[in-house]
Each structure stands twice: as structure tokens, then as C-alpha cells.
Automatic annotation (TrEMBL):
The chain crosses the membrane at residues 52-74, 86-107. Keywords: Membrane, Transmembrane, Transmembrane helix. It comes from Flavobacterium resistens. This is Uncharacterized protein. The lineage of its organism: Bacteria, Pseudomonadati, Bacteroidota, Flavobacteriia, Flavobacteriales. The keyword Membrane applies.
Amino acid sequence: MALDLNRISIDSYSALTPEDLTNARAQNQILEDRLGNARIGRFLEDTKLRRHLTYIFSFIIFLWLASVISILYFNGNLLHLNLSENVLITLLTTSSVNVIGMMLIILKNLFPKPITDSE
């Protein structure tokens, strides 16, 4: 069932009254207040999530570094792993890159660049 939208005209609507404008302004203010509350709620949730992620990443970095130090220590001592120099260099290099990368992620999320209108 197709509607003929050409039949609708502005003349068929009654003229706006001052009460209509007052109601429209009040509804607009209510919507702006709700939008502001939603922004504040989102900000608080983002802050809480960032805090939790920071703790999790810090714990992961601690575990990663503790395991690398353990491997390096036990390589020649207690466990006698006897890993080659190339394996140890690769282990140290990748662990350093991973730690630096995770810290950059944490810092970028904790301190984001402000959004400007010119971008």
C-alpha cells in the first residue's frame, strides 16, 4: 500500500501556539540533560574499565618479566636448560618489545589525545 506523500501539505497543520514552543523547549532541555547524563555515565565506565585494564596489563607484564628472568637464571643453574645464545637473545629482544608495546598501549589509553573540532 503506497502512500501519496504529495497530498501532505504544510497548510493542513494548525498554527503553532506559544504553548507548543514552550513544550518544545522543555522537551529539548530534557533531551539535553539526558544526553549530558549519558556522557557522564560513559566517562565513568570508561575510567573504571581503563583502571582495570591497567592492573591486568601490569600483572601480565610482571609475570612475563618474571618468567624471562627465571628462564635466564635457570638456564645455567638449577634446571640446566642449556639454551643457545641465539635463543636467549631472541627471548630478551621479544620480551623487551612486548613490555614496551604493552606500556605504550596502557599510556595511550590512560592519556588519550583530546578530540578537537579542527580534525
